[in-house]
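User: tokens in, sequence out, please.
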């Protein structure tokens, strides 16, 4: 597990139950365990090849539907977002594309199990999918994303939905060896689109409606 800081101070607060759905319980990073598993194959394609693939898939299946997970942990009394890093440069939220006929929630659980646990094809820990946070649209095949669907766009090419994942007090994360799992502070991500991209850099604002409760087990 990689993260920008190297130590953690334990506090003495205790877990309390909340009836308010806008309270997000967040547990310390050192409550979790980290392991690795066999690397997963990655596409080695040019931008032009990727666009051709997306166009072909669009003609066959229609709009590309994706889901992504927002997982928050605590470090130094500050909320950190768990991100996957590919090839030491590209940051991603855990998630991926829906299969034909698959629901958002089923896809998200399947992708979380394949990317963050030893289970495959959804057979892993029981992920608790929480609140729907927002969605982004891709009007065309280029990389430009909008947090709304422009009114002049009748045939969008991609839609990505974000969901909050409620992590338990302890869990083991098992990540493919060609990925790195990073805990990045929200203050570093906020409006840092150049480094983290449109969707990730917008996550801190999406989380601003929650009252974050740091829990010390």
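Assistant: Sequence out:
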């Amino acid at each position: 597990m990689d993260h920008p800081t190297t130590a953690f101070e334990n506090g003495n607060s205790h877990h309390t139950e909340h009836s308010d759905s806008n309270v997000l319980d967040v547990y310390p990073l050192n409550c979790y365990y980290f392991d690795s598993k066999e690397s997963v194959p990655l596409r080695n394609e040019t931008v032009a090849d990727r666009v051709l693939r997306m166009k072909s898939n669009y003609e066959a299946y229609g709009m590309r539907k994706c889901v992504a997970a927002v997982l928050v942990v605590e470090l130094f009394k500050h909320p950190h977002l768990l991100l996957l890093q590919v090839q030491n440069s590209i940051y991603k939220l855990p998630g991926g594309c829906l299969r034909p006929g698959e629901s958002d929630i089923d896809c998200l659980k399947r992708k979380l199990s394949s990317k963050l646990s030893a289970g495959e094809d959804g057979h892993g820990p029981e992920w608790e999918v929480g609140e729907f946070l927002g969605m982004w649209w891709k009007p065309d095949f280029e990389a430009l994303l909008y947090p709304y669907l422009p009114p002049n766009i009748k045939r969008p090419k991609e839609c990505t939905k974000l969901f909050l994942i409620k992590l338990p007090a302890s869990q083991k994360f098992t990540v493919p060896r060609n990925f790195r799992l990073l805990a990045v502070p929200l203050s570093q991500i906020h409006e840092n689109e150049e480094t983290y991209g449109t969707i990730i850099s917008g996550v801190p604002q999406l989380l601003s409606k929650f009252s974050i409760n740091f829990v010390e087990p």
